[in-house]
């Protein structure tokens, strides 16, 4: 790499902040320093205007100068003032119909909320309801049309709220449903509520971290003995095959058009297997073991601070011999009955249930491993919330494959979602 002296190399290291995640480039990977947006680095030398020599948590390496801004200067102020919740972009996206059409078109999702209302319509009589993040107000309209609550506060932060008011009027529900435009954390209600209902789930259950807004609204507005819908949630995991995806992204380079393109496979692994694959559709036959609930959230006791790091354990006896390409995750949420002893309503986004717009999420290992019946895959999953970008997280999977004595293999991989 061409270098020219641009600064005295023995000057004191200078503090910088990473303004985006590192990129792997033509520079040899072993020379490059890995970092994430928001990391504080120390720049020791600037041998060129493009690549600087920096240190992060005791590890040194080259970093692209354009990815850093000096701590304390105007640019860093931009970073520090850049909204860690990215609310402008987030609520901007919900101000258009695209996402609402996707959610309303998801019959499994929307019908389950309707079923929860219908199953509890008697108990909902004269109750006060808060629908947090009501979007077009469909859940609030279900409540007003299929039951007899005294009031529904439909809270929506995006500009969709003004249309939601029209929909409430259009459907003759303005006596019962009041639309409040604002963030659930900030709106003022005139009273506590008996039921807090919200559709807050994201990929891997918590991505987007709208769940924090639900917990904040619970702590402010749910009366003693009030009900949370969903009442509980589980993240489900399974070791799986993903032959099609592996063939499409990795095996493809073996001999396209009779040529050997295998030198591109490390690049393919970096580009396609470093981040999770959203909207994956796993076939039940791809499951190599019985799926298991690795994380369980109780929406009455869960605290916002608990969201920083959520850990689950797993122990999968292999039920089907095959190729362990990775893990697939999905979630299920439960709506407890308002009647003591009444039936719980479940929304399950897994491969054995009605398809949903969330589909499933696939985490690909770097190298597939053969598994046989009798083997066991044990380990942990850790969801770590991004300390800077508050709607993002990473998923770390640690696994051990226990097979006949001499073949124990273990591995660990961390997947950013997305920063
Ligand atoms: N399942 C999800 N991942 N998203 C589905 C619900 C998202 C809806 O809730 C709204 N919304 C999200 N967070 C908030 C909040 N804190 N306050 C008010 N509305 C919100 C958002 O504008 C959108 O209309």
UniProtKB/TrEMBL annotation:
Compartments, record wording: Cytoplasm; Nucleus
Occurrences of domain SH3 (ranges): 11-73
EC number, UniProt record: 2.1.1.319
GO molecular-function terms, A-Z: histone methyltransferase activity; identical protein binding; protein-arginine omega-N asymmetric methyltransferase activity
Catalyzed chemical reaction(s): L-arginyl-[protein] + 2 S-adenosyl-L-methionine = N(omega),N(omega)-dimethyl-L-arginyl-[protein] + 2 S-adenosyl-L-homocysteine + 2 H(+)
GO CC annotation: cytoplasm; nucleus
Pfam families for this protein: Methyltransf_25, PRMT_C
SMART domains named among the record's database cross-references: SH3
Coiled-coil regions, chain positions: none
UniProt keywords, alphabetically: Cytoplasm, Methyltransferase, Nucleus, S-adenosyl-L-methionine, SH3 domain, Transferase
Name of the featured protein: Protein arginine N-methyltransferase 2
Protein species of origin: Takifugu rubripes (Japanese pufferfish)
């Amino acid at each position: 790499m061409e270098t020219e002296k641009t600064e005295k190399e023995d000057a004191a290291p200078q503090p910088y902040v990473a303004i985006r995640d590192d990129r792997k480039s033509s520079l040899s990977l072993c020379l490059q320093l890995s970092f994430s947006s928001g990391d504080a680095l120390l720049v020791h030398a600037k041998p060129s205007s493009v690549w600087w020599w920096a240190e992060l948590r005791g590890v040194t390496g080259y970093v692209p100068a354009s990815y850093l801004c000096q701590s304390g200067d105007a640019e860093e102020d931009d970073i520090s003032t850049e909204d860690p919740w990215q609310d402008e972009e987030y609520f901007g996206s919900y101000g258009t119909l695209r996402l609402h059409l996707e959610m309303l078109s998801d019959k499994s999702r929307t019908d389950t909320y309707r079923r929860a209302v219908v199953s509890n319509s008697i108990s909902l009589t004269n109750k006060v309801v808060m629908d947090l993040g009501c979007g077009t107000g469909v859940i609030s309209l279900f409540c007003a049309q299929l039951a007899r609550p005294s009031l529904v506060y439909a809270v929506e932060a995006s500009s969709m709220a003004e249309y939601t008011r029209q929909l409430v009027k259009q459907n003759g529900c303005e006596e019962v449903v009041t639309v409040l435009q604002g963030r659930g954390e900030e709106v003022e209600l005139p009273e506590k509520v008996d039921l807090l209902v919200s559709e807050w789930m994201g990929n891997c259950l918590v991505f987007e971290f709208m769940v924090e807004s639900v917990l904040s609204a619970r702590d402010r507005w749910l009366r003693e003995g009030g009900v949370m819908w969903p009442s509980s949630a589980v993240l489900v995991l399974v070791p799986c095959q993903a032959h099609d995806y592996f063939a499409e992204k990795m095996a493809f380079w073996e001999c396209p058009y009779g040529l050997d393109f295998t030198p591109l496979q490390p690049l393919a692994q970096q580009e396609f297997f470093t981040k999770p694959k959203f909207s994956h559709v796993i076939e039940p036959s791809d499951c190599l073991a019985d799926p298991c609930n690795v994380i369980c959230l109780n929406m009455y006791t869960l605290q916002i601070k608990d969201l920083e790091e959520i850990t689950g354990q797993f122990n999968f006896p292999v039920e089907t011999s095959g190729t362990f390409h990775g893990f697939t995750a999905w979630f299920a949420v439960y709506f407890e009955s308002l009647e003591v002893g009444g039936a719980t309503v479940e929304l399950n986004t897994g491969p054995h249930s009605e398809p949903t717009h969330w589909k499933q999420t696939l985490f690909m290992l770097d190298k597939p491993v053969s598994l046989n019946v009798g083997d066991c895959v044990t380990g942990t999953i850790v969801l770590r919330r991004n300390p800077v970008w508050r709607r993002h997280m990473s998923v770390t999977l640690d696994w051990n494959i226990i097979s006949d004595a001499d073949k124990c293999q273990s591995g660990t991989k961390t997947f950013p979602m997305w920063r």
